[in-house]
Amino acid sequence: MPAQRTTLADVAAAAGVSVSTASLAFSGSGPIADRTRSRVLEAARTLGYAGPNPLGRQLRSGRSGIVGVVMGDALRRAFRDPVTIQVLDGLVTRLGPLGLGVLLVPGPHDASQPPVDPLLASAAMDVAVQMWGGTTDDPVLETLRNRGIPIVLVEGTPQPDVAAVGIDDRGGMAELTRHVVALGHTRIATVTLPFDRDRAEGAADEARLARIGWEITRRRLRGVTDAGVQPVVVWETPASLVEHGAAAGRALLSGDDRPTAVLCQSDLLASGVVLAARELGLRVPEDVSVAGFDGLDLPWLAPDVLTSVSQPLADKGAAIGDAVADLLTGGTAEDRVLPVSLRVGTTTGRPPA
Prior knowledge:
Elements: H1 8-15, H2 19-27, H3 34-47, H4 54-61, E1 66-70, H5 75-78, H6 82-95, E2 101-105, E3 127-131, H7 139-147, E4 151-154, E5 163-167, H8 169-182, E6 188-192, E7 202-203, H9 206-209, H10 215-226, E8 234-236, H11 242-253, E9 261-264, H12 267-279, E10 289-294, E11 307-310, H13 313-328, E12 336-338, E13 341-343
Parallel strand pairs: 1-2, 1-3, 3-4, 4-5, 5-12, 6-8, 6-9, 9-10, 10-11
Antiparallel strand pairs: 7-8, 11-13
């Protein structure tokens, strides 16, 4: 038979205090003298007591201490993206001091699979964060709403019953496009993030463009048209990865009528286009200009430094954490929109003569 587990009552008896006083000593708050708290903690160390049962604490408080984070993709792809990693780092840095942990839930990444991970219907969480691309009829949002879980939506369609955190990516994309136009480019193509759960790949026709489901992709495309440019080709990718940018680059730059500039909705996609241009014997930016979005540090792309729209990734993560904290107080969280800025690198220049 295993030895009987030491309880909080045992610790209280050893310290000569009531069980409620011992509980206050572990909570770190409440009207208890420092000397009494020290006596309780010393008794706990002597008895080998690690602390109150977390499940019991959750039942008493009515909270799990968990923030569910619904990723925008399969975890195996999400963690290859420095954007995701830096935003999550900013988020957990903010949540840690609040005593909150994170549950990562895979997002919709394959049209053949259910659009909502079963974990969302049952896992304990106090607040849910949906990363990237949410739409007004998103089944993930519907599931969370049905459970009554407060929601922070990142880079999605603003809605009255959720807290929205985003960046001025439409304005940033417009500024990037104006930069390329000012250099003299007229044949401009764009490489986009996924349109929806289908994650198709290739040139999008008008019918496909009319069915963009994810807000982040739609908004960045509108930034291009806001600057007065109708792209000669819109190339849809299944994920923000270097290999998908390279595939787009090979397709766009192999013909005689290739664009003189390629604007990409992420830096990983843009770096793939640069690698494809090198593979095809093209000079960047003398033969083709390439620009991205995110402002990542990519030393392996040297000697090139991407022209890009820089976004404050860690600050965005912190803003998500602030919105979570606001919702946990029982109030509403104001929408947060962070600014972006143009970073001119070595990959954009005047079009070839």
